[in-house]
Amino acid sequence: MNKTTDKNHLNDPELSHNMVHYLLTIHKLKEGKGYARVTDIAKDLGLTKGSVSTAINNLKKKGYVSEEDDSKFLLLSEKGHDEVHRILSSRTLLFYFLRDFVGVSEEIAENDSCQMEHLMSEETSAKFFEFMKNLACTCENISDAGGKLPDSFQFKTTLDLCQFKTSDDFVESQMGDKHLVEEEN
């Protein structure tokens, strides 16, 4: 294997599952409150301020997080912001695949997708998006054209992947921690 592997091949092994949750929490707080502080993160995650400070300092050193000079509010760097969107899109794809295509319960799909979200490379995520889109949208197009697929070949999901041209469009659309919100009927 090439030692100069880039991010498109393997994710940053520096990010643990817990670190990912810090990034997601900063993103969620910024979207919801307009700011994120160590105390807010600690409260949201049910941790001590000391442990959150240590983790945030680690994320700062790795270039994922910065701090506003005058207010000490935490900010995601461009690298951190990109990573959050990538993780949210991976989690979303995994959740809907597990729930809608594989048939596991919503609770299991949510838990498993959370455990796997940060382990998926960008390349795999892009290919996974294309795979799911092809299954969901091709079946939908055949049905719309009056064709009938056997029930065993019908893949239905409430995630509307047909609206996205590329996986990059899908990644950019991921907004917040509640990415699993379905359209209201």
Strand order of the largest sheet: 1-2
Rounded radius of gyration (Å): 18 Å
Q: Characterize the largest beta sheet: strand count, sense, and whether it forms a barrel.
A: 2 strands, antiparallel
The proportion of residues in beta strands is under 5%
Runs in which pLDDT lies below 50 for 5 or more consecutive residues are 1-11, 140-145, 177-185
Q: Helix and strand succession?
A: HHHEEHHHH
Count of discrete alpha- or pi-helical segments spanning 4 or more residues: 7
Q: Which term fits the overall shape?
A: elongated
* Approximate helicity band: 55-70%
Provide the number of structural domains.
Answer: 2
**Helix/strand-derived class?**
mainly alpha
Distance between the termini: 49 Å
| Beta strands, count | 2
**Average pLDDT, all residues:** 80
Structure description:
With 185 residues, the chain is mainly α. It has 2 domains: 60 residues, Arc Repressor Mutant, subunit A (Orthogonal Bundle); 90 residues, no CATH class. Helices cover 56% and strands 3% of the residues. A hairpin with a 6-residue loop joins strand 1 and strand 2. Helix 1 crosses helix 4 and helix 4 packs antiparallel against helix 5. The termini are far apart. The N terminus and C terminus are likely disordered.
